[in-house]
């Protein structure tokens, strides 16, 4: 199958973004939700900023204090045996998988484009942490347009876990907050763009801590706020590109064969690729076909090297006639775009 990477890739890098916080550096501009508003492509980018530190023996962690509406900086000595600093993204207590703090704070900022290749970044955040459930940052947005409203949902991180929160807007100026729609531990939500037999559907990714892997589920709602009838949709596959964990990527879109969902899968060594699953047009809880092999793998330098290398991670796609324009985060650092043909993607799948 042919894929076309834009010559301008990466389209947006940390060097293109001025830090919002004084004394911080931008380490990531990635995993953006994508939509079109008034003939302009909106890229709602996850911006990760890290406090500058001139002492190599100290690791800093930014935390938003919702009581005082201020950003606080905690400092940890690398020599403190109570903490594990081996992962540059997180600070964990020793001999514990769960993390206590993040080493950067993420928020969402708009980049705009007329041609989909050259983007201009807004100076201010569009969505910034605003409550105690977002104290460690907000990440990885998706955007679903339904009628004249744009529903924006994202991972909200705090000391009580990571859940999925949602806001909506009609003009990308005023925001209406709807609160958390999927409680921790959950993320990678993707809401279908229309009613199906009188109900809304959403993909989501719970994180079991018992005997299962992070896999894709599907849920129903009558109002986009309260979700039920949760069903397991798609599982990991031993020995394949999606063996360790999987999650929804871009918002599902209609094709002549069903709903096409671009989803990410990771191996045990944390290599993230992008594949596809085809769902029944009238019953999206029914899987019709799936990628046996990844559609897109981290191959280019900007995909293999970065803050967390070996990652292709899509949060948004635009479909124009038979062309999929998949915007994706590369190496947890930058934004890039790939074009694929809808028919070729459908033909590449293994049908059940």
TrEMBL record:
It comes from the Bacteria. InterPro entries: Glyco_hydro_beta-prop_sf, Mannoside_phosphorylase. Gene3D superfamilies: Glycosyl hydrolase domain, family 43 (2.115.10.20). GO terms for molecular function: glycosyltransferase activity; hydrolase activity, acting on glycosyl bonds. Pfam families: Glyco_hydro_130. Keywords: Glycosidase, Glycosyltransferase, Hydrolase, Transferase. Belongs to the glycosyl hydrolase 130 family. PANTHER family: GLYCOSIDASE. This is Glycosidase. It comes from Niallia taxi. The lineage of its organism: Bacteria, Bacillati, Bacillota, Bacilli, Bacillales.
């Amino acid at each position: 199958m042919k894929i076309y990477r834009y010559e301008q890739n990466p389209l947006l890098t940390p060097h293109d973004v001025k830090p919002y916080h004084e004394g911080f550096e931008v380490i990531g501009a990635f995993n953006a939700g994508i939509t079109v508003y008034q003939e302009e492509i909106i890229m709602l980018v996850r911006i990760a900023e890290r406090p500058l530190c001139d002492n190599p023996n100290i690791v800093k962690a930014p935390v938003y204090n919702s009581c005082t509406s201020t950003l606080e900086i905690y400092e940890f000595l690398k020599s403190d045996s109570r903490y594990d600093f081996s992962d540059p993204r997180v600070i964990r207590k020793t001999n514990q998988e769960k993390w206590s703090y993040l080493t950067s704070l993420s928020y969402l900022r708009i980049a705009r484009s007329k041609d989909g290749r050259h983007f201009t970044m807004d100076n201010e955040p569009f969505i910034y942490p605003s409550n105690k459930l977002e104290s460690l940052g907000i990440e990885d947005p998706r955007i679903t347009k339904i009628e004249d409203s744009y529903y924006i949902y994202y991972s909200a991180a705090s000391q009580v876990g990571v859940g999925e929160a949602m806001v909506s807007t009609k003009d990308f100026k005023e925001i209406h907050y709807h609160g958390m729609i999927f409680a921790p531990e959950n993320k990678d939500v993707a809401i279908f763009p229309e009613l199906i037999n009188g109900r809304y559907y959403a993909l989501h990714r719970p994180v079991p801590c018992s005997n299962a892997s992070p896999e894709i589920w599907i849920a129903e709602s009558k109002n986009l706020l309260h979700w039920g009838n949760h069903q397991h949709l798609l599982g990991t596959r031993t020995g394949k590109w999606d063996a360790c964990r999987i999650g929804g990527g871009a918002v599902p879109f209609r094709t002549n064969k069903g709903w096409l969902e671009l989803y990410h899968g990771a191996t045990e060594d944390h290599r993230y690729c992008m594949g596809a699953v085809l769902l029944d047009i009238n019953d999206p809880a029914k899987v019709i076909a799936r990628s046996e092999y990844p559609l897109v793998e981290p191959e280019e330098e900007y995909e293999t090297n970065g803050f967390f290398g070996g990652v292709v991670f899509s949060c948004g796609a635009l479909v124009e006639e038979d062309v999929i324009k998949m915007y994706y985060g590369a190496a947890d650092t930058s934004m890039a775009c790939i074009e694929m043909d809808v028919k070729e993607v459908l033909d590449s799948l293994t049908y059940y």
